[in-house]
Amino acid sequence: MSFARPWVLLVLIAPVLLVWWEWRCRGRPLVLPLDHARAKARSWLERTIKVANLLPALLLAITVMLLAGPQRLAPDVALRRRHALGQGVRCHR
Q: What per-residue confidence (pLDDT) applies to 55?
């Protein structure tokens, strides 16, 4: 795929760093001072929240790619001419 402004793709470093930061850095669990207990390990909840926190980075990556201006690849001109002249591949019965 080619882009009209490929230099804009350098900004994709930001969402990659955001994803790395979110997934790698571990925060502290919230423990209220009233219960005097340690927070329970809820790995499924932690993963769900991390995935939800990755959505802004994903949206940023999609926006950057759209701003880079993706271009369609032009079909082969010779192939189009052959088909226009009736010289394309035909099936024989």
A: 93
Rounded CA-CA distance 50/90 in Å is 54
* Domain ranges, ordered by start, for the chain: 2-84
Using CA atoms, how far apart are residues 85 and 34, in angstroms rounded to an integer?
A: 83
Rounded alpha-carbon distances, angstroms, from residue 82 to 54, 74, 75, 86: 49, 16, 12, 6
Strand partners, 3: 70
Kindly state the tokens that stand for 15.
């969402």
The Cβ of residue 86 has, within 10 Å, a number of other Cβ atoms equal to 7
pLDDT digits (tens, 9 = 90+) for 35-53: 666 666 777 877 888 888 8
43/47 Cα distance (integer angstroms): 6
pLDDT at 73: 65
User: How far is the C-alpha of 51 from the C-alpha of 57, rounded, in Å?
Assistant: 10
